[in-house]
Structures are given as C-alpha cells and as structure tokens.
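step=predict obj=DUF2837 family protein n=117
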Amino acid sequence: LRIGGIPKRIMLINMFATAIYTAGVLSALYASFLNPDYATNASTASGLVNGFATILLTVLLDPRIALLTERALQSESGAESMSKMYGWLMISRLLGTLLAQLLFVPGAYWILWIIEL
C-alpha cells in the first residue's frame, strides 16, 4: 500500500524514527529529574535513545528514500511527484513528533533502568 507514492512501511519507519529522536533528549532530562542520584548519567544518556533512531534512519530509511527520489526524477512528472513524496514524508515527521509525546515518559524510565544496571 502506498500513500502519496511512498510505501506505508517507509512512512511508519520515518514516523517512529522521528518520535524517538524527538523524545530522546527530553526523556534523558526527565530521567535525571526522576532520580537525582543519577542525574549526570541520565542527562548524558540521550544517545542511548537516539542510537535506535539513527540506526532506523541510516539502515532502513535513507537508502529507500534515495531510490524513491531517483525513480521520481526519472519519470516525466519528476519534480511534481518528488514534491508530493517529500510532503508526505514531512507529514509523517509531524505524526512522529506527536507520537513522541507517548514515548517521552516510558523513554525516561527506560533510561533510568539502563543507567541503574
């Protein structure tokens, strides 16, 4: 199933990666507030959360978006279809930012769990 010329799976990966990136730093700061004894460790642990998003973007998303862009530019309506495609990707990023609100607190508790090991 495609939405705006983009496979639904790519839209979902983009949404989840954006949600993880958005929640990462704030979750680390909130984790440092929840447990002041580990405040320094928690506040610098946003890389734990953002590492997952980096892997999702680098391995799963960027190569596929590059292929979609190349295919769009080779078609007759290249610029138009590419604009539409990137518009839908921006919508999925907006949805990812909204999803980050749900991941914010669980991310903080996950960071606390990791640093208390």
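step=describe
The mean pLDDT is 90.
step=end
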